[in-house]
Please model this.
Amino acid sequence: MHTMWKGSISFGLVNIPIKMFSATEDKDIKLRTLHKECHSPIKYEKVCPNCEKEVEQSDLVKGYEYVKGKYVILDDEELKELKEEHEDKSVKIIDFVKLEEIDPIYFNRSYFLGPGENGSKAYTLLREALETSKKIGIAEITIRSKKQLAIVRVYRDCLMMETVHYPDEVRDVGDVPSVPEKTKVNEQELKTAIMLIDQLTTEFDPEKYHDDYREAVLALIESKINNQENTTTPQQTAGKTNVVDLMSALQASIERTKDQELKPTKKKAAVKTKATVTNKEVTPKKRTTRKKANS
Model:
């Protein structure tokens, strides 16, 4: 598992070296967009709509749109200084609360926390304290220059950190259109609905749930590969490919070597033929000259 962050957890005077690992991964099937004619992957280039030309990375700056169509420019040095000023390689636990007091709408990303060098004892102490007290820690952490709220809890004997949205990042539910007001519902209908809920109630087992669509797409892809159906290689335009086929290159080298070996032989044969023809042409002329001289 790849370490994505190193730092420490601190609460009070306790400091625990930790390593952070992503607890989840994106399983979405990523499909490339190909040109229908030659099946080459499409490139998306950075183009300035005003200048109507492609721009390089060195031509780009960062800007914040404070009103529609107006931007304030922030240069890299300014952002770097702010990053260095606010970047703190620690997870600072500032409060302890009960997990059920936090609505799931606030949860964002999950990370596993492992002990860093010489941190096992303190790591174990915090884990046992959280389990015994049945509390979680409310913490602040800076990841990729962004200060985030987080919780620290125990998950299967491992400390876990989950980033949490700040209150102003959660939209007002009152803005959702057409939500019906609370009204009295039919008593019999309510009892039937509750009965159905009771019949479907079970213990949560994450292993029983699957992404059927993703599995079906993967099965379709595997079937096409196995049957060599609709498998393709992009057509390459001569002189425009950067990919070298090693076997093709070796074979071409062999053929070129053969050609070079054959060319001198053909040349010599051509010279010899030419010389023979010349001699045949010259000889009769000399004899004719001599006959004229004698006469």
The first strand starts at residue 5 and ends at 11. Confidence is low (pLDDT under 50) at residues 265-295. Residues 247-295 form one domain. The radius of gyration is 38 Å.
